[in-house]
Amino acid sequence: MSHTIELRKVSKYYAGENTVSMGFARLDLTLDMGEFVVITGESGSGKSTLLNVISGLDSYDEGEMFVCGEDTTAFRTEEYEKYRKTYIGNIFQDFNLVNSYSVYQNIELVMLMCGKKPHECKERINELIELVGLTEYKRTKASKLSGGQKQRVAIARALAKDAPIIVADEPTGNLDSESANVVMETLSKVSKEKLVVIVTHNYDQAEPYATRKLTMHDGRIIEDKMLRQPSQVEAPAEKPLGIVGSAGKRSSDDMRKSNEIKLGVRNTFNLPAKFILLFIVYLFLSTAVLGMYASTKQSLNAQDILGYNEYFKDTSPERIVVTKEDRTPFTDEEIAKIEDMANVEYVVKNDIGIDQGVALDSGDNSIDANVYDASTLKKKQLTYGKLPENDNEVVVYADSNSWSAQYLKEEGEKLIGMKCRIVSEMDYSIKVSPDTVTICGIILDEDSKTMNYTGYAKLYVTEAQGKKIASSQMHFLSKTTLGFGSNTNTNYNCVSMIASSKVPVGKTFISEDTSYNFGTDKAVGKTVNVMVKNSYYTEYAHLKVDKVFTKKNIKSLLGYEKNDYDMYSYYVFVNPADYKKLFDKGYYQVSAYMSDSTAYKTTAKGLEEAGFNYLMLKDSLSDMTGGFQFVLKLLSYASLIIEIVVLFFIAYAVIRLIMRSRNSYYSTLRILGASKKNTDNVLRIELLLMMLIAFAVDMVGVVLLMKGIIVYQPLRSALNFLGSTDYVVLLALLLVMSLLIAKRYSRKIFSKSAMKAYREEV
Questions:
Q1: Dist. CA 5–CA 291, nearest whole Å
Q2: Per residue in 525-540, pLDDT tens?
Q3: What single string gives the DSSP state of each residue in 291-316?
Q4: What's the CA gap between 574 and 589, in Å, rounded?
Q5: Distance between CA atoms of residues 491 and 1, nearest Å
């Protein structure tokens, strides 16, 4: 039968800076179950070093040590960790309890480390607490116990592992005689079923209970005396350790992931001062990274749209221009299909109005604007007024870069109810819509996601009003040719046609100057052949000349003043129904606006699968930086990375200082048998949870900021450029940073042996 512990010619040395000292030399020793062994001797004799080697806290330098017949010579760190966890229960002179844990939690700690589930521990813990006489202190924190009570908790903790070997280094050194007797009596009871080895200077306290006395001097055993017959206890089976970490299997004494999580969560909150300090640091880290990331996104967005397109005025990165392959108008079903696509927020049918500017003319002032669909607005967006309730009401939107922003800001609510004409931005004499409209709402947007390089405001109108405007703008984009009479070859490229309800359907009013195109014949009753041609269609109309207007009759026929004749002499007036037939042929082009411009690939894929042609506006811009846009982006990314790296090291330095109070905790876990992996995981969980809490608080702040409850305009403007994907990326980045901090910190505190870390921290 193998001995529980057997040492053969074992030596231990300590290397100093320029010296080598001996712990003990060439010891031969056997220890068996049922023994209560007391090691005594003067200071420096090697007794504590021997205890540390027996317990696996220190390795040995020569000789052989066997545990239940298994040679430990080739043990690595992992094997020693498993040995301590499975076979050794430690009791220390200074107790080495977790002061922020209760009596129950201190005992539970080692059971959780050994893979027990929390509900499996309860009964055994209560038995041990009763055994050491601390039932009434079960929920009391260790920091509030007396020295004797703390030592009894340490004994109960050692017993909780059900380890066959109990080692105690000066277990009564800090206790009064009464407490010391209680501790010794408890250890004596334990030794009936285990091997108990204690080191003490006060042999008299241990003598009544000891079965064997070892006396050491100058690193050697000078006395090995059997005091009384030990209990007959069967030793554990031979070869108990085997190969640590067998592939695909989890040893029954490995810590469970759920237990690591439980300890990590417990450690997060059990020290209020540490929690508050870490929370402040992590909140600062999270907020700083969030701000830097948002600012970078804002900068990158500005660079993305730092260009121009001579055909499109709204070059928002969220905009996609969509057309059909067969160049026919969109049906309602097709538009609905685009609206239902992933990442599409809304579709503007009156696409032509976005790029062909109009002017909102009040007589005293004018506002240059592009035309949008009012159905895309929400009431909460309004700064003043209300949403349009009829076709003659409009909403004006301006961001801080619009030419009209200052005017709208200064006039504010006074503009509500103002009557205006919608006219051509190139010629205010030409109405783009026959209606006089009323400003019913104003939006002043200081948080626009898109830098407005055109300077244009936005005019939001109803769909019906939008159609009228689109008809006029289609007219401006079309080539309109007039043919006068059936027997003439005279063609006339008309500058403009104007719709007027004063003209009968199928008829036209032309000027006296235009009538000369019929030669000597009178124009009235003659046919004007109209051909409209653009990139989408060609349309014809045959209109009879009903009236010829002159300076004298222009007011009675059309309502214009005599002095206006020269201005309108080149125009042909037709009925609105005929005008609509020529220019209102449906929507040949629409614009889809994405919720998230960074997710454009999803939208593009949907459009391709549906068979539509599309143009991503942000990809159509001419570079205004002279080819340096790519370099500017690289610099932005590089700047962000450098800022985050600097922030990481600053945060790590502060966190390391705060976490120094936890060094003794993690050292305790290691000497109690937790593996480096287990301890790393507990640390990771603690720091990851702190980051999640800080990020959650930041997200609450973001919501309050975006709702206007907290006011900080620069940050709010930057946050406008972040979508849900960005917040996921941010969270992942912060969690990685937290993991790196944990890894760097754990490398620092776990770079030393368990015993060295214990000596330094405890």
A1: 60
A2: 998 889 999 888 999 9
A3: HHHHHHHHHHHHHHT-EE-SS-S---
A4: 26
A5: 121
Is the sign of the CA dihedral 110, 114, 117, 119 positive or negative?
Answer: negative
Contact 467, 379 (CB under 8 A): no
Is the distance from CB of 685 to CB of 261 less than 8 angstroms? Answer: yes
Whether residue 335 contacts residue 373, with contact meaning beta carbons closer than 8 Å, is answered with: no
Tell me the whole-structure pTM to 2 decimals: 0.62
Task: Give the closest residue to 222 by CA, choosing from 232, 230, 233, 214.
Answer: 214
Quote the pLDDT of residue 734.
Answer: 92
What helix, strand, coil percent values describe the chain, rounded to 5?
45, 25, 35
Give every CB contact of residue 419 below 8 A, 6+ residues apart in sequence. Answer: 362, 436, 437, 438
Strands 212-217 and 220-226 come out as antiparallel
Q: How far is CA 558 from CA 2, 195, 502, 548, 761, in A?
A: 121, 117, 7, 11, 98
Q: Which two tokens stand for residue 743?
A: 């890894």
Task: Specify whether the CB–CB gap between 330 and 588 falls below 8 A.
Answer: yes
676 or 126: which leads in pLDDT: 126
The three-state (H, E, C) secondary structure of 403-467, written as one string: CCHHHHHHHHHHHCCCEEEEEECCCCCCEEEEEEEEEEEEEEECCCCCCCCCCCEEEEECHHHHH
Round to whole Å and give the CA distance between 376 and 394.
Answer: 13
Q: Residue 513, CB half-sphere, CA atoms under 13 Å: how many?
A: 12
Instruction: Give me the count of residues in the chain.
Output: 762
Q: Tens digit of pLDDT for each residue in 60-103?
A: 999 999 998 899 998 888 888 888 888 888 888 788 899 999 99
C-alpha 122/C-alpha 107 separation (Å) is 10
Position with higher pLDDT, 152 vs 752? 152
How many other CB atoms are found less than 10 A from the CB of residue 380?
Answer: 6
Given a contact cutoff of 8 angstroms between Cβ atoms, the answer to whether 216 and 24 are in contact is yes
Highest mean predicted confidence (pLDDT) among 309-313, 360-364, 490-494, 742-746: 360-364
Number of Cβ atoms within 10 Å of the Cβ of 549: 23
Q: Is the pLDDT of residue 719 over 50?
A: yes
Contact 452, 399 (CB under 8 A): yes
Q: Specify which residues 27 forms β-bridges with.
A: 10
Report yes or no: 373 and 349 within 8 Å, Cβ to Cβ.
yes
Q: How far apart are CA 464 and CA 476, in angstroms?
A: 19
Pairing outcome for strands 479-484 and 527-533: antiparallel
Residue 740 has pLDDT above 80, yes or no: yes
Residue 173, both tokens: 């050194």
Maximum Cα–Cα distance across the chain: 147
CA torsion sign for 118, 122, 127, 128 is positive
Cβ(579)–Cβ(472) below 8 Å: no
At position 744, the amino acid (one-letter code) is R
On whether the CB atoms of residues 377 and 395 are closer than 8 A, the answer is yes
Asked if residues 627 and 720 have their Cβ atoms less than 8 Å apart, the reply is: no
Query: Would you call 646 exposed, middle or buried from its count of C-beta atoms within 10 A (0-12, 13-18, 19+)?
Result: exposed
The answer to whether residues 132 and 152 touch, using CB atoms and an 8 Å cutoff, is: yes
Q: Rounded mean pLDDT of 409-434?
A: 88
**591-630 residue pLDDT tens:** 999 987 777 888 999 999 999 999 988 777 766 555 566 7
Band of residue 449 on the pLDDT scale cut at 50, 70, 90: low
Nearest to 761 by CA among 672, 652, 665, 657: 665
Tokens for 569, please give them. Answer: 């002499």
Nearest-angstrom CA–CA distance, 670 and 312: 67
How many Cβ atoms from other residues are within 10 Å of residue 359's Cβ?
19
pLDDT-based confidence at residue 304 (cuts at 50, 70, 90): low
Residues with Cβ within 8 Å of residue 541, at least 6 apart in sequence: 529, 530, 532, 578, 581, 582
Report how far residue 421's alpha carbon sits from residue 435's, in angstroms, rounded to the nearest whole number: 7
DSSP 100: T
